[in-house]
């Protein structure tokens, strides 16, 4: 049975961040804790968000979110949350800050270690409506966590795990492209390819969700047409920034359908080496996974490769995925992203550990073609 559910209230426009106090009041937050990171503060973006409140009334801030959020950072933020007797969270930042806020939403209101509530541990149903409410203000156009019911966190045993429950869905997503205007080109490219990967991978999933398919294809078309412009002249190209913000939001609205091997591999490798950027990993893994997925019956039956190629402005039927895969590789090169895993410091001796994690990842079973260990090894080798 297909589950189709869209619940998040979304504001998307330049200047939308001014709605923050209003949205906090709407969802009943009187004493929110702001979750962000040092980079967002240093770039002046946090100040833009806090300026929505009257002088002297801005909420307290936790700005120690790591690039790959950890259970240890969740504990630090929970202490501040409890000290301030806070009643909700406002995440201002990229996917890391938003996911950390979701981790705090669980840990501040539920007992036991975070892994208890991980999807792969059967813990999704243990997350209750008691979870603290979250409002998300994305400052990159990438993860789409602002409209997603899930979070990815590194727990104390080193695993990078997913947490999924409707109670974690942000009560509001305030998508203000102005907050992304000063995003550096390298981060614009990496987060933009993350959003594009969400659109592509969820569209390839065999799960039945026609609205998600439509949203993903439209997001892919927008992102593919504008990511180079946003990367090249993001400070001045407001149209490209708006379109990439929409691509990010649409990819996450769609990926309730499920993702696949790209994310299984990225989650596992990101857990093994937290220094690696998730969006960059997705960009590097996409070509090999597209070629692997081309053999899936659902891909052929529903002409999914041809439909993606059309959205990307490519020609040909592309039955083996070569046209789409080659276009992604060319785009990665034009954006200045790494040519492969080897350029990111990944060694073949890491493969077994990466595959172990990928086989257990929550995205593994929603790939349109179930991958074996040998399949994952081939995808890793092709991505080097």
From TrEMBL:
<dbReference type="InterPro" id="IPR039697">
    <property type="entry name" value="Alcohol_dehydrogenase_Fe"/>
</dbReference>
<dbReference type="InterPro" id="IPR001670">
    <property type="entry name" value="ADH_Fe/GldA"/>
</dbReference>
<comment type="similarity">
    <text>Belongs to the iron-containing alcohol dehydrogenase family.</text>
</comment>
<feature type="domain" description="Alcohol dehydrogenase iron-type/glycerol dehydrogenase GldA">
    <location>
        <begin position="9"/>
        <end position="177"/>
    </location>
</feature>
<dbReference type="InterPro" id="IPR018211">
    <property type="entry name" value="ADH_Fe_CS"/>
</dbReference>
<dbReference type="InterPro" id="IPR056798">
    <property type="entry name" value="ADH_Fe_C"/>
</dbReference>
<dbReference type="Pfam" id="PF25137">
    <property type="entry name" value="ADH_Fe_C"/>
</dbReference>
<keyword id="KW-0560">Oxidoreductase</keyword>
<keyword id="KW-0520">NAD</keyword>
<dbReference type="Pfam" id="PF00465">
    <property type="entry name" value="Fe-ADH"/>
</dbReference>
<protein>
    <submittedName>
        <fullName>Iron-containing alcohol dehydrogenase</fullName>
    </submittedName>
</protein>
<feature type="domain" description="Fe-containing alcohol dehydrogenase-like C-terminal">
    <location>
        <begin position="188"/>
        <end position="383"/>
    </location>
</feature>
